[in-house]
Design goal:
The chain is of the alpha/beta class. The protein is 31% helix and 14% strand. It has a 5-stranded mixed beta sheet, sandwiched between helices. A 5-stranded mixed beta sheet has the order 8-7-6-9-10, with helices on both faces. The longest helix has 19 residues. The C terminus is likely disordered.
């Protein structure tokens, strides 16, 4: 009795600031076979151990029925794991368990020149950069040995080190400083967490690629174009230029404290600031004041209007995490929809700031522009205003819901035999 070979599989992961999604799909095409989700996956802001647990939870859900042994390529995009290319480039991985020596991945040396690697799924360099969940990712370089191989387990899913350094299973040699901004960063945390999560389920034969969330988001556009722009606006905000499927330059993405202009956090914070300005006479009165107070659980307006001041101040302090404060963003949109001029002005300014970030990357007229994130993805509430602003460069946004389809597309390209890739 002839046994039918079961198809090879790929794993795609999109880990953003508000949540992560995982899908397994056949390497030769078709819709995902299974998907799962978990909590926030920003590699800079989520503790590494918690990130590993969330990845393991979602990966475990999709790798039932012996699927782990059939996974040939994994592509994961993480908020907080990006960096424009250059010295110290993040390398592509080799197959997990190469030579059985515990150096799970290959070295990054084969990608040291910064050229796109397997099917354009390249590594990147230097300082981790922007992600939807927020922030300029200061600090890059090679990180200390991680869970994917530093524990000495030969054959675990190997995520390669930076250019010229062994993969994470190679022992103490891994940990030498990489490129500019060496000294820890989101990419290293992401690769360690992902490697450990994959090892839990015995994913050993796959090549593994850790990218920025903006890279997989761009690949989610129809046709998986190699070059163009990505504009991210959710909790955080950034503009990114993609060249050859890899992050080549970025504008903003500097985090809630020093940037992320036009993001959900920025809109919520501006709503609070301008409500307070209207309260004490530094700015025009606005309907945002009672609406935001109600969002913080305040009852009917007190006789002393200045009591509202502390409702907003204390409420903002209690919701000091960017993702929590950003949840007030819909209050500003609702007030604008009801005609409040202050709220309308905030949204107009937010759209202008996002367009300004895109303009900083010197867009070429008509080039692909992918928009992603809760504000400017499909049916995003800020998308119409942004579209108007971008028309000055003859740019038409292509909104995508998230980067998961892009991660799957890049994983499928990476799983093809070399001859099929034109190598």
């Amino acid at each position: 009795m002839t046994r039918t070979a079961r198809p090879e599989l790929v794993l795609g992961i999109d880990a953003g600031g508000s949540g992560l999604r995982v899908a397994v799909a056949a390497a030769d095409g078709g819709p995902p076979l299974a998907t799962a989700s978990a909590g926030a996956g920003n590699a800079r802001s989520v503790p590494e151990r918690l990130l590993e647990q969330r990845l393991a939870h979602a990966i475990g859900e999709v790798l039932a029925d012996g699927r782990a042994a059939r996974v040939r390529c994994v592509v994961a995009g993480f908020a907080g794991a990006g960096a424009p290319g250059g010295a110290g480039a993040r390398g592509n991985t080799g197959a997990a368990g190469d030579a059985g020596a515990g150096a799970g991945g290959g070295t990054g040396a084969r990608d040291a020149a910064g050229a796109a690697g397997t099917a354009g799924v390249a590594g990147h360099a230097g300082t981790p950069g922007p992600g939807a969940g927020g922030g300029a990712r200061a600090g890059g370089g090679t990180d200390a040995p991680g869970a994917a191989g530093a524990r000495g387990a030969a054959g675990t899913a190997g995520v390669a080190g930076h250019a010229g350094t062994p993969g994470p299973g190679a022992g103490a040699a891994d940990g030498a400083a990489g490129g500019a901004g060496a000294g820890g960063g989101g990419w290293g945390a992401a690769r360690r967490a992902l490697g450990a999560a994959l090892a839990r389920y015995g994913v050993r034969a796959a090549s593994v690629h850790v990218l920025a969330d903006s890279e997989v988001a761009f690949a989610a556009a129809p046709g998986t174009p190699p070059d163009g722009l990505v504009l991210v606006a959710g909790t955080g905000a950034a503009a990114v230029r993609i060249r050859g499927h890899r992050l080549a330059a970025a504008a903003d993405g500097c985090g809630w404290l020093t940037g992320d202009d036009g993001s959900g956090f920025w809109i919520a914070r501006e709503g609070l600031r301008r409500a307070l300005r209207g309260l004490d006479g530094r700015g025009p009165a606005t309907a945002l004041l009672p609406r935001l107070a109600a969002a913080f659980g305040a009852g009917p307006a007190p006789a002393d209007p200045y009591a509202l001041r502390y409702v907003l101040i204390d409420g903002a302090r209690a919701a000091s995490e960017p993702a929590r404060l950003a949840r007030l963003c819909p209050v500003v949109f609702d007030a604008a929809a009801d005609g409040d001029p202050v709220a309308e002005g905030i949204l107009d300014e937010a759209a202008g700031l996002l367009a300004e970030s895109a303009a900083a990357l010197r867009p070429r007229r008509g080039e692909p522009l992918v928009t992603v994130g809760g504000l400017i993805g499909p049916a995003g509430p800020l998308l119409p205003r942004l579209t108007t602003r971008l028309s000055a460069w003859d740019l038409t946004p292509c909104p995508v819901a998230d980067g998961l389809p892009g991660a799957i597309a890049l994983a499928r390209a990476g799983a093809k035999p070399a001859a099929d890739r034109g190598a």
